[in-house]
Amino acid sequence: MKTNKSYTKRVRVTRNGKIVARKPGQNHFNAKQSGSKRSGKRRSVTLSLTAKVQRRFLPSTTRTTA
What we know:
Layout: H1 5-8, E1 11-13, E2 19-22, H2 35-40, E3 44-47, H3 51-57
Antiparallel strand pairs: 1-2, 2-3
């Protein structure tokens, strides 16, 4: 199965296999938000995907034991 390229551009897989992405909603309309909320959105967030979703979008990250 092919990897979903649009999805891989939004996420990053760490060495330990965690999937990290940017927090959503930080591209525009942020002037009215508080500074702490804006600075909190700069941090990455760890995604917890089910095995089915991970197999569908990121087949290369699933580990197989042989």
